[in-house]
Write a structure and sequence with these properties.
Structural class: alpha+beta
Strand order of the largest sheet: 6-5-4-7
CATH class of the largest domain: Mainly Beta
CATH topology of the largest domain: PH-domain like
Number of strands: 7
Low-confidence stretches: none
Shape: elongated
Helix content: 40-55%
Strand content: 25-35%
Number of domains: 2
Largest sheet: 4 strands, mixed
Amino acid sequence: MSDTPNVLFFYVFIFLFLVFGVYWLIYRLTLRKSFKSDPTLTAEREIEVKESGVRITTTDSDAVFKWSRVSRFVEAGKSYLLYIGMMRVIIVPKSVFKTTEERDHFEQYVKEKIKKRGEPILKKDE
């Protein structure tokens, strides 16, 4: 009889683990499918970094984000992330730079723009 609470706890734990595991798997698969099927997320884009801000151009859209909207600059593995508020991010792959000098210039330029406002500059997320 003393093992009954332990066995019950074990079965509840396994049940919850399976429920959350299945939920996570479905969420990941749905997210991946919606990303691949959304042309606005997968379309080729051009990113220009200018004095006035960051301009993103695709075949059917054009958006400019002023530097005052950039809240954070993060180096994350093979990309740079420019956070526009809490939920939006501009991803700049490091592979777009032809030389390390170009990449260093970009990094320094963005740091200067964000530093003027006292925002977090560069954090490594790896």
